[in-house]
Each structure stands twice: as C-alpha cells, then as structure tokens.
Amino acid sequence: MYKIHEDFGAFKKVSAERLAEIIDSKLLDTRLIDKPIIINSASLYLNEEGYFLRILGKDGEEGIAPCSGMASYLHLLLKEKIIPYILGKDARNMEDFLHEAFVSDLNYKIQGLAWWCCISWVESAVLDMLGKYAGVSVCELLGGRKRDELELYVASGNRHTTPEEEVEILDKRVKELGVRAVKIKLGGRMSKNADSMEGRSGNLLRLVRKHFGDGMAICSDGNGSFNAEKGIEIGKITESINGYFYEEPSPFDDLWDLKTISDNLDIPIAFGEQETSLRRFAWIIENNAAQVLQPDLQYTGGFIQCIKVAKMAHEAGLVLSPHVSGGYMSYNMLLFGAIIDNPGRYHEYKGYRNAEKHTDCGLKVNDGWIKIPDGIGLGMDLSFVRNTKQVFELTV
Question: Domains (ranges, CATH) in the chain?
Fold first, then answer.
C-alpha cells in the first residue's frame, strides 16, 4: 500500500481572501537603501555566454543579470513594452513600476510566459543593482537568508531511451553527484496519452525502483502527456513503486484534469512550471489540486512572483520544488531556495552553464548537496559583459 513520504505534511485549508492578500502584498525590503536609485539606462548585451541585461543608475549604480536564450526573439518585447516604464524611476519602487508596465498601454493583453520572462530579467538586474549599492545579497532584500545549502535530484530528461538505457544514464549521474533522488520522464510530452515507446513509462518506473532500491526517491514527470483517466492509471503505477512525487501528469492549462488526477491519487502531485498567473496558482493551492508547487524563476516572473507562490503554498502546508531552465536560471533558483520558508527536500540539478566561473563558491555538488552562493547582489561578477556586443540601449 502506498505511503506518502514523511517529507510531505498535511494540507491546511486556506481562504481565497488570505491568498489574495499575499498576492497584493509588497515584498521588496529597501530599508538598507538610503537614497533614491534612479534608473538612467538599460542595455541588452550578447556574447558567447548568452544575453545579459545591464541597468545603470544616474549616479553610476550598476546591476547586471543574465537572460535566457529566449531573449533572441523576446528582446523587442523587452525594449518596446517594459524598459520605457522603468527609465527615470526609483529602483526602490520596482514593484510599482513593473505593475505600471503591466497595466499601461494594454500590455496586460500580451501577458503570458514571454512577458513574465522579460519581467524576470529586469527584476534580477534591478535587484543586483540594489544589492550592490547596499552591500548585501539580494536575499537580504527579499526576506533574508534562511539556509546555506540545498539537496539536489538529477534528471536525464530523456524520452528516446529504453528503460535499460535510461537506468544506465541515471546510474552514472547518481554516482557522479552522490544524490539520493532521481526524476524520470513519462509519456510522450503533451502527447494525448501516447507513450514515447510502447509500455516505456510503466516498465521504466519498475526498473528504476528495482535498480536503485528502496532508498532512492523516485520522481516522475509526465510533461502534460495524459488526460485524467490515463494520468490516474500511470499514477497508480508510480504509487506501486513508492514514487516520491508525480509531476505535471495533465497539460499545464488543464486544471480540471489536474484536480481529478490529484483527487484520485495519494502520491503528491507536482505542478506549475509553466504557470504565469498568481491567481491560478492560488486556485491550485486553495483546491489542493497539487501538493508540490513548481514556479519557474523565469517563466513565472522572477523572485517576487515566485516568493508569493511560496507564501501561499506555505499557508496551506505545501512545499516548493521550483522548475529550472538550466544554466544561469538554475543559479537564481539557488538564491530563491535560500529565501523561502517551505522548500521541498530535493531540487533539480541541471548544471549552471558558465555561472560557476563568475562566483567565489564554484557551485560544486558534494554528496548530493550544493552550497548556496552568498555574494553581493546576485553574487556573480559579470563585469565582462560591459565589453561585449550591445543589442540595444535605452536611456532617460
């Protein structure tokens, strides 16, 4: 009989009014900023490591934040619809002027993952600037640092492998990093119930448990592959091998099937990696439709948006295991993990691309654990960006 892991607590009912209060709250702590920091310019750079946003204050204050590769096709949205609303503004009022950008010029009509990615890049650069001015980590501006390390899990991300091939790949990663948790892919990714290979999902679940034994936490990810009926069927197999959590069984926008699957299984359901609406997160939490919330530090709109998800989940006794996109975005997840009250036990490891070159801590994984960076601002020295190719610059 399936037994939920002791890492997960009981659900606590929380009112819609309380969740709305959290959504509308202000989180940025500017008490260490003793003067207005007026944003004078914003520039996007491109180099061999990717895209970076640099923001300058009128008195020379500087913040630099990585963007993802999506900036290659989202930079016009950033330039035309967001940057104009931050120029000339006091960086201490970031929550206000980013909301102003959202509601001005009918910009809310183009909201979605693309919009919130751009917002997350701006937020990171502004936080870096404020943290550097105050001489503290961004964690201190967002509620304070609560832990110094996180435990990780590994996932290969494969669907083209046979169960035997996948176990071999995972075994190598487990031995390299010393982790005690893995994640495997089920279904075919938004595939309307089709498996990537006939019988692969069930056979892989059983083989991973047989290979790694009872001591390994086994997470599984459907990437929206199943409707409610099929999702429950596969979920029962995850329970039969004592799975740890079952991620995104239904399409990310099908909250009806999500709720049905959750109500008919005991295993914790993980969900939210592509969610951009705090109100939809609130619905998921209020209705206990998922027990592990997975906002993405980029897709969901940055630190502040994701911290609000964490606070809502915490009220309901739920945990966060954030989705990460890899590279520099995985780096930001480490800082986020230091801030929130309710991180899940395991967090996804996808590597940190070049971020480790620009930190003092090196971002090494030791026996499945990683130390959380504690440098000033974002904690990375990205000064090399200034001397690279400029995509655009806007000034006051």
Answer: 16-23+146-371 (3.20.20.120), 39-137+381-395 (3.30.390.10)
